[in-house]
Specification:
The protein is α+β, with helices and mostly antiparallel strands and about 200 residues long. Helices cover about 40% and strands about 25% of the residues. Strands 1, 2, 3, 4, 5, 6 and 7 form a seven-stranded mixed sheet that branches. The radius of gyration is 19 Å and the shape is globular. About 25% of the residues are buried.
């Protein structure tokens, strides 16, 4: 298990720079196996020295690239594959370990396509306004996967949210609920930007 300060979604990419001896050992063991490990968010504290609080819902990651530098650091590129749930944390010796199970989404029913379309529209509206206010230009015409479940994860990856909002999305019961929640989050952020624009106009 690799507790980190960010959320990895399925279909997301997580670069890591590994320098602690225990995590270098984790990399060695993972590469000797199926190249898969678990990623969870550190909700409070730091995993350095123990005492951290970790989320129980995370994501399986697969190492797709690795490179060892001359100073011993390991540069990794990892891709999220599917959700996991921690059923029991084990000792952190030699590195964090846990008993986990696959945690697939519940069946979203026929409303998923509409929920995805609504969230995509909210993302485009928010992003367009953010660019208007000076954010880095983004491609608003990005093509999302035809499969709505895959498109839902892709949208989570692209959306500019903090780790605790991202964790809420990851823990949502199914993709349709996740998209409705994401739409509300993006609409709130857009409202904040609109209020900031009005305040700027008054000064």
């Amino acid at each position: 298990m690799f507790p980190v300060g960010s959320v990895l979604f399925p279909r997301g990419v997580l670069p890591l720079q590994v320098f602690e001896p225990r995590y270098r050992q984790l990399v060695t063991d993972v590469l000797d196996g199926d190249r898969r490990f678990g990623v969870v968010l550190i909700e409070r504290g730091s995993d350095v020295g123990g005492g951290d609080v970790r989320s129980s819902v995370g994501t399986f990651a697969r190492m797709v690239q690795e490179r060892t530098l001359e100073d011993g650091r390991i540069i990794l590129v990892n891709v999220g594959t599917e959700r996991l749930r921690v059923t029991k944390w084990l000792d952190d010796d030699p590195y964090p370990q846990a008993e986990v199970e696959s945690h697939p989404d519940g069946h979203p029913g026929r409303g998923l396509r509409g929920a995805v379309d609504g969230a995509v529209a909210a993302w485009r509206r928010y992003t367009a306004l953010a660019v208007e206010m000076g954010a880095e230009p983004e491609d608003l015409d990005v093509s999302f996967p035809a499969n709505p479940a895959e498109a839902a994860w892709e949208l989570c990856v692209l959306s500019p949210l903090g780790p605790f909002d991202q964790q809420q999305l990851l823990e949502a019961n199914d993709a349709a609920i996740r998209m409705d929640l994401l739409k509300r989050m993006l609409e709130l952020r857009r409202s904040d930007l609109e209020r900031l624009m009005r305040d700027r106009g008054e000064t």
